[in-house]
Amino acid sequence: MNLLVTGADGFVGRWLVPRLLDAGHAVTGTGLGDDCMTGSWTANVRSRISWRRMDLTDATSVGTATAGDWDGVVHLAAMASGSEARQDPGRAWEINASGTARIAEALVRQRTRGKVDPLLLLISTGEVYGTSKPVPVGRDARLDTDALEPCSPYAASKLGGEIAAQEAARRSGLRVVIARAFPHTGPGQSEQYVVPAFARRLRTARTAGARVIKTGNLEPVRDFLDVRDVVEAYALLLSAGKPGRVYNVASGEGRSLREILFQLAERIGVNPIPEVDAVFARGSDIATLIGDASRLRADTGWVPRISFEQTLQDVVDAQAD
Q: Which tens digits make up the pLDDT trace of 101-133?
């Protein structure tokens, strides 16, 4: 397939692009910078990926970057940090909701001209479910917004993107598949996210001979996956996902942030004393967020293969490099 991956230079994109290239697909990536060929890309990847600059807040930029005979478009580009979205909710909506609307409309226009019929794989988030009971949510991955209760600017703006893409699909016949990814981590993730942030603070404490670790609320329970399992799900959805459907990408298992902190501490060799710091606290923490991926398994055969213990070890090892 000839594929466009927006946000290819982000954390997930840097795992997805090699996976797609190795499967024999032609891949063009987009990002805010003029060149994605820096950082952790291998020479092998650099020699096989094409690159375009794209600004989701600029309709002309989106139109230019998305022009092409695509079989599929994986829309990863987003304001993905919840803390950044809380600092500027309006910009989160501009990027995540309005930006997705621009992507969808650009593809609608190409489809209307009769040149292409691309599949838009929109990457959303399990956080759109919001407050939930301590059981896997989204068993049928419902599309109706009455089933969804986002309680953060990030989650709300991502739901806005879902609505924009579905509207375009109803209006034009654009093929849209939505993947609601639950939390995921792995080697190379920014330390602004919880797992690598914990690992870095624990490493710093060990070096300083200290035990007190500043944290936010450690009671929330989350459904974590390895990023490598997540990109495998995306790759399968490109070929086996059914347009009009929403898929949860989740393990169905929950772990508290406290449990994750102490699992990391054991690997790093620290016996920590957590201390809640208001700097890291969130006012709208979802107590429990666990996903049901039965639809994804049924339609694609996907199952997560990397244990969470291995994921944590890989995060720790990556920071030691």
A: 999 999 999 998 887 899 999 999 999 998 755
